[in-house]
Amino acid sequence: MLFRSLTTRSTFRGLRSRFDVSTASARRTELSLFGLMLFGFCLAGASSSAAEGEPAESFLASLRAVGYFDTAIVYLDRVEQYPGVDGDFKKAIPLEKAQTYVDAARSSRSATAREGYLKDATDQLDVFLKAGTHPRQSEARMMLGTLQMFRGAQTLGSEPDDAKRKEARETYLAAAKTFSDIVEKLRNELKEMQGAKIDAKSNPGGAALRDQLRGEFLQGMTLAGEAWLQAAKTYNDPGKQAKKELSEALKLFTDLSEKYDDFPPGAIALMSRGLVQELLSENDKALDSFIRMLETQDVDDLRDAKFQAASGLIRLSLADKPPKFQMVIDRVQPMIDSVRPNERRLSSAAQLHVDLAEAYLAKSRDKKNQKPADLKRAESDGRQLLIKASKIDGDHVAEATRLLASMGIEAASEETAELPTAEDPVSLDDAYAKTIELYQAGENYSQMLATATKEKDNARAAELEKQVSQTRQVAMQILSRGLSLIRSKSDVEMAGNARQLLAFLLYQDERFHDASVVGSFLAKSTPGTDMGMKGGLIARNALQNLLVVDTSNAHLIAEVKDLADFVQSNWPTHAETPVFQRLVVELALQDDQWDQARGLIEAMGKSTTRSLLQRKLGLFLYQASITARAGDDETQAAKYLAEAKQELKAGLDSIEGGLADEEAMKAALILAKIQLRNDEVTAADKTLNNDKYGPLKVAERLLGKETNKSNEAFASDLYSTELNLLVQKMTAPNSDTDKLVGQASDVMEKLRASVTGPDASARLSGIYLRMARDIREQLDGSEPGQKAKLIGAFRVFLERISATTEDQATLQWIGQTVMALAESSIEPGQTKATGQAAELLATATETFERLKKNSDDVPLTVDFQLGRAQRLSGNYKGALDTLDPVLRKKPNMLNAQMEAANAYEQWAATLPPTYAGSAYKAALNGARPDESKKNVIWGWGKISQLTSSNESFRDMFFDARYHVALCRYLWGKSTSEKTLIEKSVLDITKVAALYPELGGDQQRRKFDSLLKLIQKELGQKPEGLPPIEK
Prior knowledge:
- The protein folds into four domains: about 210 residues; about 240 residues, Serine Threonine Protein Phosphatase 5, Tetratricopeptide repeat (Alpha Horseshoe); about 170 residues; about 140 residues.
- It has 46 helices and two strands.
- Strand 1 and strand 2 form a beta hairpin.
- It is mainly α and about 1050 residues long.
- Helices cover about 75% and strands about 0% of the residues.
- The radius of gyration is 35 Å and the shape is globular.
- A two-stranded antiparallel ribbon has the order 1-2.
């Protein structure tokens, strides 16, 4: 069974953890509730708006994802000052703040900090809910209910009295009511939508809303059931005292698991249903629910719930008379073996270790039916599971410790737990020698494991993996005991070697925090020595691994900086010293701290690492310049570009030794692009052909002749840049045009040869389209004089190529490139091309028509480009006749719909008043009905309607709304109908009321100018748009 996705405003990142508030500690309760909160706010499948559209929302999601919660709050405090941010998003700022505080609380390890974050979240939710109606009201109420759940868990604490239990119960019941109200409201809305029979193709916005509401509906049902279940657990004996609460929970979980089992929440409800049935002593039914949960599809979203279901299966099976320990061992041991590294610290996985250990211990007591060797093995297996579980923080540790104590082991830590194959060392030397033997044995097992894995001997691989782990655990145990025997007269070198080996073993075991502690201690206790450097390297790598999952952890970042400074002070000339500063620099780069990163790099001595970091800084700055340019901040973009050029050049020129690697080659290509953008043709030529790092010199050596998608993308980028270089050379005085055109033709042939395979033609077309866009961007960024020269040079080159080829992909590229040249030549505000632009459009039109003549199977994009060329040339009827069949085949091709509406609008401006009104009407309301009498060409009105609810079409929406007002005004003016002109005022003021920013400063200025023009036409004072309220 394939699971269907759910659409909400957040991304599903995990599943709720198992609750046990009737007996668990406050710590366990809070962690469990955070699991629920994670589930409550993060159902499967991000909404299209979050995934595709709103930059503010995407940026905010990125900040939360990496744990920059303080930055996210600052951003939300300032976001209203930023242009182009959607009005609905701004109205939802309190809700976004609440979500950010909840995420911060979930990530915090401090109970005090969590309490503060959750109070702030509650305050922000109150602000949002009191503000009135908003599309995200149900989401806010869902969050409020979940916070009520957390308050209930906090109220219980570790040892609640009857008063606390009652208070918590009332809080849980209030949460259940909150969720139930949401469910009923959403149920009614979904019924109305069901009656309307929304079609996803014709109404994508309505379909997206329906999917979002369905996701919130299932979310609400799940949380309502959980609230009832937690309320029941506040009783001392839920099975007898809380039948009503358990009945309500069971009803909800049953509905979810029976009616919605093809969605993740429905499948997960099987586990919750089993927990309720277990509390009601309906053991057979609970067993069935747990087994059904375990038999669901093995997908990431369900793994946590499966761990909990497996624990339930063990509890019920061991409660049987006699206990069915072998059945659960056979079923659950493979789950334990398949636990992933990122799951090892889940409370559900740790609890499952303890529960399965009880099954093994039950087997070890079955002396009547088991052989002595099997009894001993079962006890050993149980002990190993308990020791492993005891390393992970959580409420299960008490149970693991109790079971270990019953076996004669005083504590569950590996330092004190006596493993079956380990003996106490008599000295540090003895411990070190034994550990070396065990380490070597473990390495042998690892090699055998690699062989078994390669040969797909799964059973052998599983056994060897277990042996590797056990051997390492025993080695660390012995070595830890040996280190505890160190005395003042102990050999310092031996102690250092032992600590180094222990740090390495801890690192291998992915216990990165412990490895960093031991490694740092070794470095700081033996400064300036090789041994100390080795300890420092282990600590550095361990800290880097910890930062991968907790990027913004201030404590970890401080440890990294402290370690780097210590190494710099004590090993200033060591070859490995720069790698410590590298991590600090990379953290600064990730935080956009360019000046800080530059200062750290400049403080480093000359080294390969310094050169690499200079290139990295250059690439980050280059990307920042692109971002600034996209935000119309040309000053900042130019500054970043100049800095990027400086850092890239320095980082490339300082490469020592032989040829550069692939990273340096790709950095050189970016440097050449910057130089070409700055019209530094000679410098770009030298960069591309540099003997050490020049992409044109070293690409084949580094990437090989065989191409893959990554190499193909780089090759197309390289050849596009080389082609740009050759064309710019043509603009130089006394250039050998014939020679350069010949070289450019060779470049095109190399590009064609680099793209192979059955779909080579389609991929080549995509590459050519990107190249045409790059050329357009290069032209738009050039000075007028240089721009004219470039257009002339490109034109010569393209005409030469066109005269010698009939290749479809090449002709399509020529047409697209000539279109780019033509559009770059058209003056701002000009609708019909003249002069050089008109000549270029004629060439493009001829090329596209030649393509159509040569083949009956040309892509729709060719017809679209032809229609656009005809429209820009002033051949409006020809453009509409070309676009008509395109839109009959693909009516949802929005750029073609906008092109057709533009053609009608611009055609109307050239017609006499008698006919102009009809053309403006067609531009506004659509034209050319099909057999079902629906307009093939939609017009600006329908375009604006269908783009209004999708954030990814935000710019199209505002552009369409502008043209709605413009066409209605011009229609009314051409027919002298004042009512139409008056209505065009409302077209602007209504959309401005909903979206005061109107798509950004530039678009708002267009609306404002048009409104003033209309007001003047109506004899009114041309006041334009009112200012945006701050």
